[in-house]
Amino acid sequence: MTKKTLKNYAKLIAKSGVNVQKGQEVVITAETDQPEFVALVAEECYKLGAKRVVVDWCYQPLTKLNVKYRTQRDLSRVEEYEEARLKYRLETLPAMIHLHSADPDGLKGINQDKYSKATQAIRNVTKKYRDQMDNKYQWCIAAVPSVAWAKKVFPNERKSKAVEMLWEAILYASRCDDDPIAAWDSHNKNLHEKCKYLNDLKIKTLIYKASNGTDLRVGMNEDGEFLGGAHETLQGIEYNANIPSEEVFVSPKKGIAEGIVYSSKPLSYQGEVIDNFSIRFENGKAVEVKAEKNEELLKKLISMDEGSSYLGECALVPYDSPIRNSGVLFYTTLFDENAACHFALGRGFTNTIKDYDKYTLEELHEKGINDSMIHVDFMIGTEDLDITAETFDGKKVQIFKNGNWAF
């Protein structure tokens, strides 16, 4: 991979991704796999006027050791210095960049019950800071390859070749060509046009049907809005939260979902893969899950808290999308969710309510935005998925036909 191409990608993340403002601090979260690229991103942030760039390093083998040897109580505790850091970030609102490269199987074999309980306890403390920061800062998730992840995606290639091929797949999916910023400006315009069409329909219910058994009705909020592409913070700063992104999404009304949905791709969750699963909903709640692989982990997912068994997002992605057409199964939600329509269990997006800034967080939850410590996407799009919209004025409009946009 050429240095010029990687610099273009780093610039895309810093400028179109988080859109670093002059004098703003930046926090980069990354695994230890690509330190040279992390430095490139940091440099691009400084060129845009960043005051300071801090890197929080992660390392899956160390996570496994922590779960193995630390007590449940110690593993679940948020130390004073950690909470002080959260308070500082709430006060300063840094741009947050998450560079994903984790091995999809990197935490296989850990005590998932212990890990889930610790995660739940930590999020109970950190949630109040996340809630207060919501919609007030820019954030972006992008990806770089690791050897383990590359070998998962391309198991028959030697390590160096697999990493190079994963780089190529990431950059292709991320629209990182000779002028990636211009490419994203055009892409965002297209996604915004899709949102306008859907919002003008005033959708009350989305009906999903596919030959794999998916048959689900999901209710919408009366003043809900579809979003997609770049959006703005409350301060008016535009940013792209996901690179890549092909989705148009909305948060459904909590408590209104009836039927069953089947997965179309594996789900990587807490360092393990859940595969070939289904979820049945009654009164909006996931009441039954089945999976050929890691069913118990899926059950833990929907029992993390009261809101984790409800839907927080409905995302529309055409089957004929660049990522799906690449033929690459990435084994990570960042990419695979942008290859197919998907749902998310857990926390909804408050900014999908029209004029959301005029309401308190409690009022937005009362309006039907689900609240949870988790937000986990899972893919349900197939080549024969049909989606029909029922509008508040009683009309029926087909918006997806055979996996693709019907308009």
Tell me the overall shape: globular
**Gyration radius from CA atoms, angstroms:** 20 Å
**How many strand elements?**
20
Percent of sequence in beta strands: 25-35%
What is the number of helical segments per DSSP (H or I, 4+ residues)? Answer: 13
Weakly predicted, low-confidence segments: none
Taking all residues together, what is the mean pLDDT? Answer: 96
Distance between the termini: 38 Å
Helix content: 25-40%
Structural class: alpha+beta
How would you sum up the major sheet? Answer: 9 strands, antiparallel
Q: Care to describe what's here?
A:
It contains 13 helices and 20 strands. The chain has helices at 3-17, 35-47, 60-69, 72-75, 80-92, 112-133, 147-153, 159-173, 180-201, 295-301, 322-325, 333-336, 361-366; strands spanning 25-31, 52-58, 95-100, 139-143, 203-209, 215-220, 227-228, 231-232, 238-239, 248-250, 252-262, 267-269, 272-282, 285-293, 311-316, 342-346, 375-379, 386-391, 396-401, 404-405. The strands form four sheets. Strands 5, 6, 11, 12, 13, 14, 18, 19 and 20 form a nine-stranded antiparallel beta sheet that branches. Strands 7-10-15-16-17 form a five-stranded antiparallel beta sheet, with helices on one face. The mean pLDDT is 96.
Summarize the structure.
This protein is of the alpha+beta class and 407 residues long. The chain has helices spanning 3-17, 35-47, 60-69, 72-75, 80-92, 112-133, 147-153, 159-173, 180-201, 295-301, 322-325, 333-336, 361-366, and strands at residues 25-31, 52-58, 95-100, 139-143, 203-209, 215-220, 227-228, 231-232, 238-239, 248-250, 252-262, 267-269, 272-282, 285-293, 311-316, 342-346, 375-379, 386-391, 396-401, 404-405. Helix content is 35%, strand content 27%.
